[in-house]
TrEMBL record:
InterPro entries: GP_PDE_dom (IPR030395), PLC-like_Pdiesterase_TIM-brl (IPR017946). Residues 13-266 form the GP-PDE domain. It holds the Pfam family GDPD. This is Glycerophosphodiester phosphodiesterase. Gene3D superfamilies: Phosphatidylinositol (PI) phosphodiesterase (3.20.20.190). The keyword Zinc does not apply.
């Protein structure tokens, strides 16, 4: 499907592999992208942050501690903030061994490398600008990488890419600088505030714990910045009953660590 409106067309929500197929491979690695591809899942979600020397990398936490061996390789650099390390330093780290020994040797991908893998697999990307308040100007860096990798070409931007953030300011910035990019706001706005969001975001993407049928219906009644109804993609739903529940609330997409389970539940 395209970046929007899947439920409206097919009656079933899109299934989006959260941090890749992260129940089965280490999150936000190329292995997690490939695992989603093996499972036949064409949408992956990731998290993008910036190194000390300005490279964009794919990692969820704002420190390297949980998902790499930074504490072993750089014992004196606690708390191992992503922003305090160069791209070359991060490239030395193992981002797979924490998940299981068979994954040792996986790396923290640069965004460029990550985009190439998604593209080679014929997949699509829900890209999260993570903690942009820590990385002033990161939206400009992101747009430069996307352009350099061909992801702002018409064929890509219209079908393969959504940029989302918990920061409404960041989403608005991306929309204003590149209105052709489909955007998503992560959070659960009050229904009364949705028209303001609809000026700059195409998607409203709430936690499943705060999702209501009223919010979904109100979003669907509004048109986003490019004249299409707002869509709703919820996270993170990993079990069959949860998938059916949010489907019945009307969502357009389900972001999940277990995309095979969700797809099976939707039938
Ligand atoms: O895509 C939505 C979801 O990823 C937001 O939460 O913490 O997993 O980035 P988080
Ligand atoms: Ca995320």
């Amino acid at each position: 499907g395209s970046a929007e409106g899947a439920a409206a067309r097919s009656g079933q929500p899109l299934v989006i592999a959260h941090r890749g197929a992260s129940a089965y491979a280490p999150e936000n690695t190329l292995a997690a992208v490939d695992k989603a591809h093996e499972l036949g899942i064409d949408w992956v979600e990731n998290d993008v942050q910036r190194t000390r020397d300005g490279e964009l990398v794919v990692i969820h936490d704002t420190t390297l501690a949980r998902t790499t061996d930074a504490a072993r390789v750089f014992p004196d650099r606690a708390p191992w903030k992503v922003a305090d390390f160069t791209a070359a330093e991060i490239a030395r780290l193992d981002a797979g061994g924490w998940f299981g020994s068979r994954w040792a040797g996986e790396r923290v991908p640069t965004l460029s490398r990550y985009l190439r893998t998604v593209e080679a697999n014929g997949q699509k990307l829900l890209l999260e600008v993570k903690s942009p308040e820590l990385y002033p100007g990161v939206e400009g860096d992101l747009l430069r990488v996307l352009r350099a990798e061909g992801w702002l070409d018409r064929s890509h931007v219209a079908r393969r890419l959504v940029v989302q953030s918990f920061s409404a300011e960041s989403v608005r910035t991306v929309h204003e600088r590149r209105p052709e990019i489909t955007t998503g706001f992560l959070g659960t706005p009050e229904v009364a505030d949705l028209p303001g969001y609809a000026e700059f975001t195409d998607q409203i993407n709430p936690s499943h714990t705060s999702l209501t049928a009223g919010l979904v219906a109100a979003a669907h009644r509004l048109k986003g910045p490019r004249g299409k109804p707002l869509t709703v993609h919820t996270w993170t739903v990993d079990d069959a009953a949860g998938a059916v529940r949010v489907r019945d609330l009307g969502v357009d997409g389900i972001i999940t660590n277990r995309p095979d389970v969700v797809r099976e539940a939707l039938g």
